[in-house]
Amino acid sequence: MRRIAPTAAVIGLVAAAGILTIAAPAAAHGFTSVVYADVTAQGGTVVSELRLEYDLLIVSAADAEDDDSLFDDGTYAFEAQDAQLQVQALEDHIDSVAAYVTAGFTAAVGGEVCPARLDDELEMTLAEGVPYVRLTVASDCAPTNDGHVITSTLFGDDEGYVRDTKAVVTYDLDLQHGSAALDAQHPSFDTEQSGWERFWSFFALGAEHLLTGIDHILFLLALIVGSRRLREIVLAATSFTIAHSVTFILAAVGVVSVPAVVVEPIIALSIAVVAAWYLLRLGRKREHVDDLERRSGPLGLDRSGGLRLAVVFVFGLVHGLGFAAALGIDQPWSWTLLWSLLVFNLGIEAVQIGIILAVFPLLVLLRRKAPKTGMWVAGIVAAGVTAAGLYWFVERLLGA
After folding, report:
1. Distance CA 212, CA 11 (A)
2. How far apart are CA 252 and CA 323, in angstroms?
3. What does DSSP say about strands 166-173 and 34-42: parallel, antiparallel, or unpaired?
4. Is 239 in contact with 309 (CB distance < 8 Å)?
5. How many Cα atoms are found within 13 Å in the side-chain-facing hemisphere of 395?
């Protein structure tokens, strides 16, 4: 019976334990939220169509306005999963909802916040499979030639319910049109903002989305531990990038639409499949797990590497749908929109490349200096990632 190197076992078990520990709370929602806003001008009025996570709006507005019955009625409607009841709960407490929303999402001119009111028309929708309410804030602003400042402090960290809320704003205002990404560090933007400011807001949003999306990170980790040579990880990462970029853009501009109830379980399954690929190879080849077959095909890959590349590409298409759902832009195709999507994608790629550059050289070094240790560390990490992927797959499939 082979003995596992003690160092390998310790490192690998710690890594696997860490992966399984973070798997349970890493559902699509519950720790952060995204506010979606479409801001336009109608005469002297700034009209902001907002989409807000329903259950979070209920608890935040009820707490801010000390309206316990809003919390009770809204929670009952949420648990009943009844869209009509959810709208009714909001309408019955429209004053509390309006006070919270108009204080948290504002338009200002010359340093003065414009008086705002909430449109009575409410509508339920879904974003990433989660109930959202669509509502409209109308802000009556004085005429200006200096642009408007749009600010979102909705669902702030200080409320204690979620953290790192992002507001994705598209606007057609002051003869300017574009997109902006707001957060706690940068809660406002000026419609006269520079191109660099617009670039950085979406680049940072893409980078943060990958960094906080543990499922995407584990998929990338599965690619790394299963790659035997630099060529394999480069080709796998490139294949994944091309695939998710295609579906990301197509989904974001509305050409492709796949429900989150389909996308999210497949993303989880992709993590398990790609990680288990290494485990299957380990079970067959043992200490020769990192060896290449003698015959190679196109791109210098052997049969196993080529098949794995195809699987990665297919799953990359699905991950792109997940990235698009996170951005949540809902507007017709335009060059401005395409620019925002490409910059968001650049942020994703920057983090992806950074993770590969940080992890893969360490794995290569370990495999060269201590082959058995490297094998077992990779195997145990792959097992942890596989378990996490299967856990999420079952959870998302059952709608937990």
Report:
1. 23
2. 9
3. parallel
4. yes
5. 17
Mean pLDDT value of segment 53-60: 95
Q: Cα separation of 349 and 211, whole Å?
A: 11
What interhelical angle do 83-92 and 68-80 show, nearest 10?
170
Find out whether 318 and 311 touch, Cβ atoms under 8 Å: no
Record the tokens describing residue 283, joined without a space.
């079970």
Structural tokens at position 236? 């796998």
Residues with Cβ within 8 Å of residue 56, at least 6 apart in sequence = 33, 155, 161, 162
The token duo for 243 is 């695939």
CA distance 118 to 134: 11
Helix (H) or strand (E) holding 28: none
pLDDT digits (tens, 9 = 90+) for 175-228: 777 777 788 877 888 887 666 767 777 788 788 778 877 888 888 888 888 787
Q: What is the pTM (predicted TM-score) of this model? A: 0.61
Q: How far apart are CA 67 and CA 284, in angstroms?
A: 62
Q: Which two tokens stand for residue 119?
A: 């449109």
CB burial string 337-348: b at 16+ within 10 A, e below = bebbbebbbebb
Closest C-alpha among 13, 30, 68, 4 to residue 380: 13
